[in-house]
Amino acid sequence: MEGLQNKLMDGYYDDVEKNVSPMRRAVYRxxxxxxxxxxxxxxxLTVTERIANLEKEGYLDVRKAQxxxxxxxxxxxxxxxxxxxxxxxxxxxxxxxxxxxxRIRQSDKSIRFVYLMRPKGNKLIFLVDAxxxxxxxxxxxxxxxxxxxxxxxxxxxxxxxxxxxxxEGEKDRWGTWLSSTAYINDPEGKPVAFLGTDVDFTDALAGxxxxxxxxxxxxxxxxxxxxxxxxxxITWSYGRAKREALRREMEAKIIELNxxxxxxxxxxxxxxxxxxxxLRSPVSAIDIAIQTLDKSLDGRANEDERMxxxxxxxxxxxxVSLVDDILDLTRVEAGDFKLSPREIDVKKTVSEVVKIFxxxxxxxxxxxSLTFEGDDxxxxxxxxxxxxxxxxxxxxxxxxxxxxxxxxxxxxxxxHLRIAVKDTGIGVPSHAVKDLFKKFSRVHEMRASExxxxxxxxxxxxxxxxxxxxxxxxxxxxxxxxxxxxEIPRYAATVGLGDEKQLSGGKQN
Length: 509
Known about the structure:
Oligomer: single chain
Helix content: 40-55%
Number of strands: 15
Number of domains: 3
Largest sheet: 6 strands, antiparallel
CATH topology of the largest domain: Beta-Lactamase
């Protein structure tokens, strides 16, 4: 419909578009829209009336056929034998005819009255009525039909041909009816009586009324829809130039803003890298000094001095780890992180990481184990990236495990190196799984004050693993706890990584 509207409203004015003001074009479109709406309404109402009339004609034809069939089943001799008075009550013929009329009424629930009539003088009288004698609507034999009109007896006076007919809106003391009539003729073709069936006029044409209602409703909706489309089109056309200029301005601002964001992000990364790099040396010096002081004062420090020294050791370790994480993550994001793949002994490398964390596990009363699968434990990978990722996973497992164990499993096959860290800790809430590897994500916020961390560890693991062409994922431990695993190519050459290969890690989510 919108395409037709565009052709009718736009196509006509194509040749004068450039010479007509926007306001005048809007007026032309309004006039064209009004004419099209009138056309839609006219066509809709015409089609509706046509369909309704066809439905009505079909219904009336059915009624005529129904009453004609019923009248043909009544023998004229039975009708002639009736006297048309109360003596017919005891006549077997009366009961026979009444039974037929009752069956006719029962065959169609919409029929209200079924009766036989014939003229007596200038009036019609009832011969047989399908109503029960106890009903207030029952008409006994001989009762005069007071609403008899001239047209009702014209057939019996040979002024009309005796053929089935229907009268719409026929009113009498019982209501308004759609009356169907068929005549019972003798062998010479002369009518001796007629069979009438009455259907409530409102009920009879209810279907026609519904068709008209639905047709008018659909026409109104179509007109309203077209009106909405027309208003939308006219409004859109009128403001098109202004919107086009605004769109270009917004695009320019978006491009400018995006460039500013890129510059700001680059500046942030440069700042973090510079700050981390500058902090690494003094922070490492402080940590070494504290470690040296701890060894030199071993056994000579009092309780308060020992407490202060432990606090300093813990803080310096966290500061060194934070600086290393920020520096590595920033370099990967900036594309400045360089891989240096070399041949390593996987079992020896991973074993050294586990040994580093054995004191921490012992302090918490946890068991830490290491299992290997595969005969050849050699691989060509970036040892630093491998160690940094594994250290973060083991550290996290120990942080969030209070009882049980932490198990590090290594599987080496022909193409891949797979390492999994399983724990029996508090696990990860289902709603937090999707944010596990995002920067600064702390999935256990309620324990954030008890367990120290920055939320950078898993993000750094993801960046380092993906930088080596691998993948990292989380699984729920069936017996309780978590399983974090990563898989990287066993040989760096299989992913095109040579010595000192520079990475463009991209932004991490």
